[in-house]
Specification:
Distance between the termini: 35 Å
Shape: globular
Helix content: 25-40%
Number of helices: 14
CATH class of the largest domain: Alpha Beta
Structural class: alpha+beta
Number of domains: 2
């Protein structure tokens, strides 16, 4: 026990290899050690109640890590302890990575936010919009899906529409059902699949409302990156973002080392956690900008720290401060149908635009996003905080409780 505790203390004192950030005493960055323990208590309660198997949590402030803990199990049946270097499926926490990639191309003058997507993917020109056709009487009861007709889109969908989820591209029941008719095959690439979305009607007129596009919108952005850069999306991310920021344990296809550290995905059914079938571990040629990445907690940290630093980390600049500000601005304001009070949407990230209306402890201007398996992160430019929650069971209430536990630990 003494050796284990000593080793743990030594590791805590070392700089984080990927992010080159020093671990510090919480009080040295204006956080309370005692109050940060409430994060551990929160996770312990959720484990004890059978809501999650385990978690990794990380809080950094002013460029230094003040809290980094692994709790519970990565695999219940094997009784495998959760480790700080456990690998998690990021799901939609992949989207901010895609957002950064697009904004790099915007800075280089190769893409404009106002560009029609069809400039890069001609098949997405002249899209139609689905309009529900009301059914009456016995016919309505017999319908298994809404009946609809199509009208021309008022305008073309743009890069900004995709980044802020106001495009209508596979963003609701009609478009999802129609997209299933041209579903992607296992061996297809972005280049193979994305053009087929041109046959799918939009859910609504572009820009008229906010509705989340779980896959198609950001996969399309990934294809835009490929067309503009001449590289496949995986190569672009590795060369332009992951390598410069020293993010080694992140990618679409896990290395053997990453695979051995995968945390099991669980779903709570019939009152207990049941293992979900983990995604196919065979290498995939489909690099989903919407949800395909997996990463350790430590390796996602440099992305967040780069954003809170205004676009640079360890002397390597990825984006300009103005571009980061643009990402965290309300492109889809909370007044737009589909958004919640005080919660606008920026470019690939949720934005707290009014913490009082949002009933949120986060500062106005905080932004981040989450994943379907429960992963969650945000950056707070005002308080210089990066916070990451890694779990593999989706519990939205846990994400909100984690935000509260982090922010109440600020004492100066």
């Amino acid at each position: 026990m003494f050796l284990k505790r000593t080793l743990s203390m030594v590791l805590l004192a070392l700089p984080l290899a990927a992010a080159a950030l020093q671990v510090t005493k919480p009080e040295d960055v204006g956080l309370s050690s005692d109050r940060l323990k409430r994060i551990n208590e929160l996770i312990d309660r959720r484990i004890a109640s059978g809501d999650i198997s385990g978690a990794v949590t990380l809080v950094a402030r002013r460029g230094r890590v003040a809290h980094f803990e692994a709790q519970g199990l990565a695999n219940i049946d094997a009784k495998k302890p959760m480790s700080k270097d456990a690998i998690f499926r990021l799901a939609s926490m992949s989207k901010p990575v895609t957002g950064v990639a697009i904004m790099m191309l915007v800075e280089e003058g190769k893409v404009r936010l106002t560009d029609p997507v069809s400039r890069y993917i001609p098949e997405l020109r002249g899209l139609k919009v689905a309009v529900v056709q009301p059914a009456r009487g016995a016919a309505a009861a017999a319908q298994s899906a809404p009946q609809f007709y199509t009208v021309p889109a008022d305008r073309e969908i743009t890069i900004r529409d995709l980044l802020s989820h106001v495009s209508g591209l596979v963003s609701g029941p009609i478009s999802t059902a129609e997209a299933a008719k041209v579903a992607r095959k296992a061996d297809e690439t972005l280049a193979d699949y994305i053009p087929r979305l041109g046959s799918v009607p939009l859910e609504f007129q572009p820009g008229s409302r906010w509705s989340y596009s779980p896959g198609a919108g950001f996969d399309t952005l990934g294809r835009v990156v490929e067309v503009v850069s001449g590289q496949n999306f995986d190569q672009f991310l590795r060369q332009r973002i992951f390598n410069p920021l020293e993010m080694k344990d992140i990618g679409f296809n896990p290395t053997p080392s990453m695979e051995s550290r995968r945390a099991t995905i669980y779903q709570k059914r019939d009152g207990r956690l049941q293992a979900a079938v983990n995604a196919n571990t065979q290498p995939t040629p489909y690099f989903s900008g919407a949800g395909g990445l997996m990463s350790s907690t430590e390796d996602y940290l440099p992305l967040g720290q780069m954003l809170v630093n205004g676009g640079q980390l360890n002397g390597k600049r990825v984006l300009s401060p103005r571009t980061v500000e643009m990402m965290g601005s309300p492109h889809a304001p909370d007044s737009l149908p589909g958004r919640n009070p005080g919660q606008s949407f920026g470019l690939s990230v949720r934005l707290v635009s009014d913490h009082v209306k949002a009933v949120s402890p986060l500062s106005d201007g905080s932004f981040g996003w989450s994943g379907a398996q429960g992963t969650h992160f945000w950056v707070d430019p005002k308080e210089k905080i990066v916070a990451i929650l890694m779990v593999q069971t989706s519990i939205p209430e846990l994400q909100r409780d984690f935000e509260e536990a982090v922010m109440q630990a600020i004492i100066e």
